[in-house]
Design goal:
Number of helices of chain B: 16
Number of strands of chain B: 23
Largest sheet of chain B: 6 strands, mixed
Low-confidence stretches of chain A: none
Low-confidence stretches of chain B: 26-34
Strand content of chain B: 15-25%
Helix content of chain B: 25-40%
Mean pLDDT of chain B: 92
Helix content of chain A: over 70%
Oligomer: heterodimer
Structural class of chain A: mainly alpha
Mean pLDDT of chain A: 88
Chain lengths: ~350, ~550
């Protein structure tokens, strides 16, 4: 099967996945007897005409399956409904918050991937030496520390006790965002030649990106180490050495390429996971991304926003998996896409 | 042996790393600025407040939440206002004088001259008429807030006498009319500006006005980044002028995590913030931070479903009196509110106009279980139901106490109340539900007995409290669907509602109190205290429970 056929087939598979996600989220949020219209309209202070309008808008007086049909129809037309929390269409909220999360995730991965892979290689090549022990400690700390604790400690140390980094936010207090082109402040600052904003954006992303990337770094590090150890014991490595290949060539040309497949899996899935669920990091560092938006939506009973977020996360996961599968084939030509 | 050596090596490395971390943290603690020297004022001309809850809109015609009200109050002006912590006096703002006719129906306002909107347009009586009519025509499709003006005004009410004089003819002689005017819904917009940007369409929001406010107030919008911050700059042509000390810029930041807000206050990024009661311990005694509680008008109640169709016992006023004696008010303040609450007597919170009509604000009921038992016994509700060798009242009927999920204070009080009810022989259960589920139960099913709930002010008049709580559904009261109805009470509350005569209103509210408090449809629990911790470099701050945050008055300096 050709690559593009594989991609199209997987993208078509996205449709039943999304239908499943909508059925589950819609059912969960609608089966419990509730009065969302009155909750959105202000609880006991809600005015009857506002309750009536919201009830009509959400088709709450109609049977559940009819409501679901309307909902699905709206999704097809890219209408995710209105966010009662923000008093604007959900799609507008997601369009604002997704780039913030994407930017944070990219920087987290920029920290996690190179450090994780290099650390993993060093750890494997210098097995049971001091550097292996140090990287092992880093890895253990990385995936044992609760992310909220790490975030709070980093804030406490670097924004309060030794105040060299900002406490929270994407930019300095009161600073205007750069003209929105991509929504990624760092990219937009570069594109608009706004160096002040670029500096502030880079300065503000350090702590949250490190926090978010640290656990992934640990995973990548351990995964790379174990894969490298396994590959380095393979016959073809021994053969390479016997043929007189340089150690550098053996490690980087022959061992690493094969050892990276599990690392790619972890990286891809982590990327999807971080995009969809950086709730704690975003909340603590006051990063106006999707995770924080979703948390506020859940606490504010803003069902439309919660469902919009869920659908977007489902799409991200499916796409992340697809990219991982494609990368397998790129890294290892023996892997055939869609092959049985 | 080799394995043991490796383990020893690892242990050594771990010990070194941990020791280094400990030393770094210990030394870093020494840098804390607690040596008696004052911290340098951060951003000396900018006031920064960290809060929870972003604004929903900056259009006063549709704003009905505190997040939206705060920036609107800085950008727009109203005809009259409150100042400092005074909730009992109306102060001139865009109106300089006002008078009311003897029948309480016609109000005349003289307007301030030489006032301009921040775009340079002149403020005149036409803007006042346009602003009020706009609210009524638009009808606040998002929030429903137009009801506040709609209860006594229509589009014929506001009459322009000349450029600087308006007359307002009320549809009903509403006693609380003047109290409506300092609220955001009565803020004055620029007629020409609104007309240039979408105008007024019945039942439809004005998307432009939501994001692009234009008022006569001291500040104007610099930018609003959703879920991040609202930044306001000085309005250079503000009629109040800029002599004296005032901030140049105001930033309202939104941070959901209390720990982040605490650190922002500690490191001086925040001049003010909101901190939950349970986290106050983290800043108590901290140098440079002021923690002071203020009585708010936010009240907490236990609502009683008095409908006999639901529970025949709670329909009896004597049972409800007994329940009012069975709640341990003081312990609840200590345990649920960490002491940051006070008691109040009836449906009008202490400090609000006419609160003294409610037994001078002194609660009639105190925690007295023997008294509660005595009332129940005298009313014939003796312990007659044997359950596991313990006798209970009401033939073993269980009283269900509800509260909304996530509300820790109400949860503590509900559990505490269940214990007290058990002691006087009443079976009860505590049930937690999500807010939408709870609303469904209260308004659609009638299937509930007691519910812990709260209320905050829309405007500073007792009619915003006592009428929706105590008046019956037949006269458009009974907001909490308690089913309570007493014809004399209804009559008195209508009397208080539709009179601008203070003596008439006071007498009506007093008579109503004397009746309803003997058959209470609520257990009146606490009036919450608000704590707005602030840096000690902020000067001139005062808390007003009905019109918070007037940043123009504050400034940053050590004095």
């Amino acid at each position: 099967m050709k690559t593009w056929e594989f991609i199209i087939r997987r993208l078509i598979l996205l449709i039943p996945v999304l239908i499943g996600v909508t059925i589950i989220t819609f059912t969960v949020s609608h089966v419990i007897p509730a009065d969302p219209a009155r909750a959105f309209a202000g609880g006991p202070k809600a005015q009857p005409d506002v309750i009536e309008r919201i009830t009509k808008e959400l088709h709450l007086n109609e049977p559940l399956w009819t409501q679901y049909f309307y909902y699905l129809n709206d999704i097809v037309h890219l209408n995710l409904g209105k966010s009662y929390l923000e008093s604007r269409p959900v799609i507008e909220s997601l369009a604002q918050y997704f780039p913030a999360t994407l930017e944070l995730t990219i920087f987290a991965m920029l920290i996690a991937i190179p450090l994780g892979i290099v650390g993993g290689i060093i750890s494997a090549l210098r097995r049971n030496k001091l550097s292996d022990h140090i990287t092992r400690i880093i890895a253990i700390v990385g995936y044992s520390l609760p992310i909220f604790w790490l975030a709070l400690m980093l804030q406490y140390v670097f924004a309060y006790q030794i105040p060299i980094l900002p406490l929270e936010g994407r930019l300095a207090i009161g600073m205007n965002a750069p003209l929105s082109i991509t929504g990624l402040y760092i990219i937009d600052s570069i594109l608009t030649g706004n160096l002040n904003t670029l500096g502030a954006a880079l300065y503000h992303i350090i702590l949250p990106a490190f926090t978010l990337g640290f656990a992934t770094l640990a995973l990548i590090l351990r995964m790379t180490r174990s894969s490298m150890l396994e590959v380095m014991g393979m016959d073809y490595i021994r053969t390479g050495r016997a043929k007189g290949l340089s150690e550098r060539s053996i490690i980087y040309k022959h061992a690493l390429r094969n050892a990276l497949i599990p690392t790619v899996t972890i990286t891809g899935l982590s990327f999807g996971g971080l995009l969809g669920g950086a709730v704690l990091t975003e909340t603590i560092f006051n990063w106006p991304g999707m995770g924080r938006f979703a948390a506020r939506a859940v606490l504010g009973f803003d069902f439309n926003s919660v469902m919009g977020f869920t659908i977007l996360v489902a799409i991200i996961y499916v796409l992340a998996n697809l990219i991982v599968d494609i990368l397998y084939a790129v890294i290892d030509p023996r892997v055939k896409l869609g092959g049985g | 042996m080799r394995r043991n050596n490796i383990l020893k090596k690892e242990a050594g490395v771990i010990a070194i790393v941990l020791s280094t971390m400990f030393i770094v943290l210990s030394f870093s603690g020494c840098t804390e600025q607690q040596n008696g020297t004052k911290m340098e004022i951060k951003n000396p001309t900018t006031l920064v407040r960290y809060d929870i809850g972003d604004a929903k809109t900056l259009d006063p015609a549709d704003a009905y939440d505190t997040g939206s009200s705060e920036p609107i109050f800085q950008i727009y002006d109203t005809l009259v206002t409150y100042k400092g912590n005074d909730t009992l006096t109306f102060y001139p703002c865009l109106a300089t004088e006002w008078s009311v006719s003897n029948d309480s129906l016609t109000w005349n306002f003289k307007l301030r001259q030489n006032v301009k909107f921040s775009n340079g347009n002149d403020f005149t009586a036409e803007d006042v008429k346009y602003s009020f009519d706009r609210v009524l025509i638009m009808d606040a499709p998002e929030s429903g807030v137009s009801w506040i003006l709609g209860q006594c005004m229509d589009t014929n009410s506001t009459i322009v006498i000349n450029d600087y004089e308006v007359q307002i003819k009320l549809t009903d002689p509403y006693g609380g009319f003047l109290s409506l005017l300092p609220y955001t819904v009565a803020a004055i917009v620029d007629k020409d500006y609104v007309e240039e940007h979408g105008g007024v369409v019945a039942g439809t929001e004005n998307e432009y006005m939501k994001l692009n406010p234009m008022g006569t107030g001291p500040y104007m919008l610099d930018h609003w980044t959703r879920a991040t911050e609202i930044v306001l700059n000085r309005n250079p042509i503000y009629w109040g002028g800029w002599e004296g000390k005032h901030p140049e810029k105001v930033v309202i930041k939104y941070a959901d995590e209390p720990a982040t807000r605490i650190l922002a206050l500690k490191n001086g990024d925040a001049d003010f913030t909101y901190i939950p009661y349970t986290n106050l311990v983290d800043i108590m005694g901290e140098e440079g931070i002021v923690v002071h509680p203020f009585d708010s008008f936010d009240i907490v109640m236990c609502v009683i479903n008095t409908k006999a169709s639901n529970n025949e016992y709670l329909a009896d006023g004597e049972v409800r009196r007994a329940l009012s004696y069975a709640f341990d008010y003081e312990t609840a303040i200590d345990t649920a509110w960490n002491g940051y609450a006070s008691r109040y007597a009836g449906a009008i919170p202490n400090g609000m106009p006419y609160f003294d009509t409610q037994n001078n604000g002194v609660p009639l009921y105190n925690y007295d279980l023997p008294k509660a038992e005595q009332i129940l016994d005298a009313a014939g509700y003796t312990k007659n139901y044997d359950l596991d060798d313990t006798l209970y009242r009401f033939n073993g009927t269980t009283i269900r106490i509800f509260f909304n999920a996530g509300n820790a204070e109400r949860e503590k009080m509900a559990i505490m109340f269940r214990g007290a009810l058990d002691e006087i022989g009443i079976l009860s259960s505590v049930i937690v539900e999500g807010w939408p589920q709870l609303l469904h139960r209260m308004y659609t099913t009638d299937d509930w007995d007691l519910m812990f709930i709260g209320w905050g002010p829309d405007y500073n008049d007792p009619d915003d409290y006592i009428f929706p709580f105590i008046a019956s559904a037949d006269v458009n009261g009974d907001t909490y669907n308690t089913g309570y109805k007493n014809e004399t009470v209804d009559e008195k509350l209508l009397e208080g509602k539709y009179s601008a005569d203070p003596a008439v209103r006071a007498a009506a509210y007093k008579t109503a109190f004397d009746i309803y408090i003997q058959e209470p449809p609520f257990i009146f629990l606490q009036q919450r205290q608000y704590i707005r911790p602030w840096r000690n470099w902020v000067q001139n701050y005062s808390y007003n429970p009905v019109r918070e945050w007037y940043f123009y008055d504050y400034y940053k300096a050590y004095e």
